[in-house]
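Hello K.,

You asked for the raw outputs rather than the summary table, so here they are, unedited. I folded two proteins back to back in the same session to keep the settings identical. This is the first:
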Amino acid sequence: MSKTYTPRGLAVPAGRISRAARLGGLTTGLLGAMATEGTRALARGERPRARDLLLTPANARRLTDELARMRGAAMKMGQLMSMEAGDMLPPELAQVLAHLRADAHFMPPKQLKQVLTTQYGADFLRRFQRFDTRPVAAASIGQVHRAIAKDGRVLALKIQYPGVRAAIDADVANLGTLLRLSGLLPRDLELKPFLEEARRQLHEEADYAREANELTRFGALIGDDPGITLPRVQTDFCTGDILAMDFVESTPIESLEEHDQATRDRAMSRLFRLFFEELFDWQVIQTDPNFANYRYQPTTDRLVLLDFGAARHFPEAFATKCRALLQASFKADREAVRAGLIDLGMFTADTPASQQSLILDMVDMALPMLQADSVDFGDTRLLTSMREKGMALGMEEDFRHIPPWDALYMQRKLAGLVLLATRLRARVPLRDLAAPYV
């Protein structure tokens, strides 16, 4: 399915009642369309499945467009479902939800002015030499504008959409109702843990004071690393709904595709090294794998890191378990790897032997990455084979084990790095980068 919407100025439904009404209307409309099409199919002597009735092209467009219009928790939860539960969702639904990872619609000037007036006062323009009304980026929770303060500081203002924080709980509950009633999900899939985790994460990401603290924390941890830059928080422009930072000139990380092999390799090696530091040294990881959170400065050969709303703190015991699994992997000790995976909660000792074997086979396939001088992510044959193994596991009717959230978030970050390295066709010395932590 091609992209079904183009980002444009579109007001965000701000009130909890109006947002609930829109999601309720979406649920009613989709279920009504399912009932109508089901009646027609039965009249033709067919016995259609729920997913076939819901995921018609028209319904898929309606679902994507409405969640994109809503933004906030409705859109973010669609993104989370496509990533966290993607292997358990029907491929058609996962594909529809994946489109929500694209750029969001943005607030029209009138609504933007209302937000700025509420946050800075009616004379807010006096604080700036220049304010660009067209956002440089728009996502599910807010949008980013470039501005120049009176004293000449060039700022990036991350402005939260009105009403999204107050509506998180209701949005998550209403979207959960839609997923339950649709019949799309496996009957024995417990949706409640996903809803609760989505609600928790959304509240954290909508807390801009928390994000400012995490950005400052990461800046201190990374220190004077010559290859990485983070924007600094500008506290005098921060409010409850606006996070103000330095505006750092940079290009999308995908622009590295046009650079030479050495530059691409250097960039991805830095990001994998940073991942190991986050997990083993600091026990805090920026877990959002969105490519937009990475930028590149061609003039300085520096990576720019953005968006720390999804920073997650991990218990030291979790890092210790990950280290034990890494050690077992370096030794290619299959039984120790199995014990490590059980300890992390990736499966249990009671998981059927055939399913354990599938997971261990995937690990065995990945072990050469820790034994080679360099991993060529431009060669996608290994990753394709591993993906096929994963899909085979997901097709197992009785495999519904959900690993602990810490493991899922760590896995999501690592998978995002692998996808980016593949996109950039990078060659990365994973063995040398991981060796200090064995």
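The second followed immediately with the same parameters:
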Amino acid sequence: MIRAGDLLIDRERYLVTVHGRPVRLTFMEFNALWYIVEQSGRVVTYDALAQALWGKPVPHARRRLAVIISRIRSKLGEAADIIDTVTRVGYRLAPLLAD
């Protein structure tokens, strides 16, 4: 399990909660969130995230990732700011939550 602020991610049960309330994520959304949070503040490049999710180059990967991250943020509600966008590079766990 990983806790970041009000967010709790349970990898074994594929469960995400915010303030104790469950958040319904798709398999791909869950894995993207887990990978970013697991990196603990380090920048996850678009290429690294695409490799982690699909295991191979994927056409229009950046756009697909942007959609996935947008959906995650939407579902996380007030905890959406856990994911920072690093322009032209990728994503990272918000700095205040990385420690």
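The first strand starts at residue 2 and ends at 4.

Happy to rerun anything if the numbers look odd on your end.

Regards,
P.
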